[in-house]
């Protein structure tokens, strides 16, 4: 090991190198525990929502009178009629409110629904008559006095697929993708260690990203992280925060619902400016195939390092994920903000599925990006923080870019 | 560092403007009556175009 490689400030050989690997191992362990928790969540069977409480009318005197669904339904009918009337006529604050639908000596009471999961099961796996009724028209439509267009739509097979897709498949796959990525990155840090600048620092700098490039990057990054964290509260809040209490989930949920919309416009601005600045440098070339074939030179400190211009193939994938993935997120997200304006019920269901599915993928991808930009590689963060990188770093990772830049500046 | 702070400031400004915009053009999706009853002002969307 050469002198230069050993002891430079911020170097990653020797003791510092080992330190990163130990941290990686500990973090990998943590992610293993989290993955085990996710596996438990996957199989504990609470991914389905079952109705838990139902209404019934009971006599106030003789509590426990096996009372009538009938009275409850009469009261609901009266209520429905009132709503229907008001929906047609608009507010009439002076009008008389109908009397209580329930006689004085009766009251409504909630009770547990026994065998509630059996109800959900029947709903999620239709059999016999229900199945054949659903099969043909794709839905079961009934009669309803409720003043909503969708109220009379009782069952729709695609609604089931949507529900299972969103609350089961995407939720669990997303958790596996995100935690799995965390585990892989930690394991990589433990086994491979931080990627060093092989020749050590030269102490001479070269400008890599200008002020506008860096500002745009951080604008996008901050917006994305804001969207990701609030989105995780929205999607996983019940699992992650409900154990801490209703209040915690309620407060976080409130802030997250707001925050999730507030970060969106700047995210869109960020990816738009990024696309304008960097698309040209990110078009695929022959170099990329070679770079990918050699694994980016990532897995060894001695082998040949595949040459790259300003962006290597790995970075190009990150760029296109941000721009194209981000665009899909913005389009579906705006659609969800304006439900039913340009899509119908089926379209809205797809918008949700796509928004959620791409979101978890992007979070996993950008975990990888953040890793390699910080702990994963010595010297990388300087490109985005101050804008200048060490010449040895540039020569190693972007040799063609450095040569072209030197040639241009030498010629001036 | 300076670029990071600028980015953060633009993000904060964007969030503030969006908030003001949303509050200004807020449209309620439900109406509440004196007796406490509420009706939802759903769009007349429908399953029959689905
Ligand atoms: C804490 C979070 C982040 C850090 C520390 C970080 C760090 C970096 C660094 C150091 C570079 C320059 C690499 C080079 O010199 O070649 C970079 C580039 C880039 N970053 Fe980030 N980044 C973060 C978050 C994000 C997010 C959330 C996005 C997009 C949503 C993003 C998108 C990009 C893109 C498109 C590039 C240019 C292509 C590339 O180098 O991969 N970054 N980032």
From TrEMBL, chain A:
GO biological process: anaerobic respiration; formate oxidation; respiratory electron transport chain
Regions crossing the membrane: 20-40, 169-195, 216-237, 257-280, 318-342, 348-372
Coiled coil: none
Residue numbers spanned by region Disordered: 84-107
Gene Ontology cellular component list: formate dehydrogenase complex; plasma membrane
Cofactor: heme
Superkingdom of origin: Bacteria
Membrane listed as a keyword: yes
The keyword 4Fe-4S appears for this protein: no
Keywords recorded for this protein, A-Z: Cell membrane, Electron transport, Heme, Iron, Membrane, Metal-binding, Transmembrane, Transmembrane helix, Transport
Family the UniProt entry places it in: Belongs to the formate dehydrogenase gamma subunit family.
Protein name per Swiss-Prot or TrEMBL: Cytochrome b561 bacterial/Ni-hydrogenase domain-containing protein
Lineage, uppermost ranks: Bacteria, Pseudomonadati, Pseudomonadota, Alphaproteobacteria, Rhodobacterales
From TrEMBL, chain B:
Organism this protein belongs to: Roseivivax isoporae LMG 25204
This protein's name: Uncharacterized protein
């Amino acid at each position: 090991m050469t002198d230069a490689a050993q002891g430079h400030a911020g170097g990653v050989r020797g003791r510092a190198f080992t330190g990163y690997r130990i941290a990686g191992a500990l973090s990998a362990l943590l992610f293993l525990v989290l993955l085990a928790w996710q596996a438990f969540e996957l199989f504990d069977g609470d991914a389905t929502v079952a109705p838990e409480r139902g209404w019934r009318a009971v006599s106030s005197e003789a509590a426990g009178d096996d009372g009538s669904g009938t009275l409850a339904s009469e009261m609901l009918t009266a209520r429905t009629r009132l709503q229907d009337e008001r929906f047609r006529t608009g507010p009439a604050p002076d009008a008389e409110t109908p009397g209580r639908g329930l006689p004085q000596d009766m009251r409504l009471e909630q009770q547990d629904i026994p065998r509630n999961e059996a109800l959900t099961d029947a709903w999620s796996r239709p059999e016999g008559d229900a199945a054949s009724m659903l099969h043909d028209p794709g839905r079961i439509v009934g009669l309803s006095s409720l003043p909503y267009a969708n109220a009379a739509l009782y069952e729709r097979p695609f609604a089931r697929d949507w529900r299972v897709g969103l609350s089961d498949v995407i939720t669990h796959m997303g958790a596996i993708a995100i935690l799995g990525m965390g585990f892989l990155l930690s394991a990589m840090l433990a086994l491979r260690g931080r990627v060093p600048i092989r020749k050590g620092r030269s102490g001479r700098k070269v400008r890599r990203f200008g002020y506008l490039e860096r500002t745009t990057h951080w604008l996008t990054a901050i917006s994305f992280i804001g969207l990701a964290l609030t989105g995780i509260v929205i999607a996983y809040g019940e699992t992650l925060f409900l154990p801490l209490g209703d209040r915690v989930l309620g407060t976080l949920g409130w802030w997250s619902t707001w925050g999730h919309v507030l970060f969106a416009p700047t995210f869109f601005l960020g990816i738009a400016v990024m696309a304008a600045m960097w698309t040209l440098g990110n078009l695929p070339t022959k170099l990329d195939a070679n770079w990918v074939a050699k694994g980016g030179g990532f897995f060894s400190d001695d082998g040949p390092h595949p040459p790259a211009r300003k962006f290597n193939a790995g970075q190009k994938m990150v760029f296109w994920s941000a721009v194209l993935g981000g665009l899909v997120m913005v389009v579906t997200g705006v659609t969800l903000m304006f439900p039913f304006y340009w899509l119908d019920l089926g379209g809205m269901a797809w918008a949700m599925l796509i928004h959620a599915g791409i979101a978890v993928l992007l979070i996993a991808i950008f975990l990888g990006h953040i890793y390699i930009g910080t702990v994963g590689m010595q010297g990388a963060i300087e490109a985005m923080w101050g804008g200048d990188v060490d010449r040895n770093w540039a020569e190693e990772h972007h040799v063609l870019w450095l040569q072209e830049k030197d040639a241009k500046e030498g010629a001036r | 560092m300076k670029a990071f702070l600028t980015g953060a400031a633009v993000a904060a400004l964007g969030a503030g403007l969006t908030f003001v915009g949303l509050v200004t053009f807020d449209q309620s999706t439900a109406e509440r009556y004196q007796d406490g009853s509420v009706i939802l002002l759903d769009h007349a969307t429908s399953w029959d175009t689905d």
